[in-house]
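@channel sequence for tomorrow's demo:
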Amino acid sequence: MTAVVVLVFGRICPLRPGAVWRAHGLMLCWPAVTGAFNLPAKTNYLYLCRKPASAAALDLLGPWPMYLFAGAALAMALFWLLWLPARPTRA
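structure tokens (generated this afternoon):
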């Protein structure tokens, strides 16, 4: 983790254009793989099939399946915020 921070913020290996979109796309692969496992195994990993029975932070994102899309949008917003300090500067 420290090496990544030094490489990016030290401008040794700056982020390329589209890095945020690629990272978000790769992050969305994990729920897709998990969802493919959930169906035949009848499980609910990552709460992809339904919300937990007790109150949770997912309640703030809406009903199923809308909270899946709201969570993906929230993740994109957080990726973008993390990208702001590392974005390329114009010379």
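heads up for whoever presents: The chain is about 55% helix and 0% strand.
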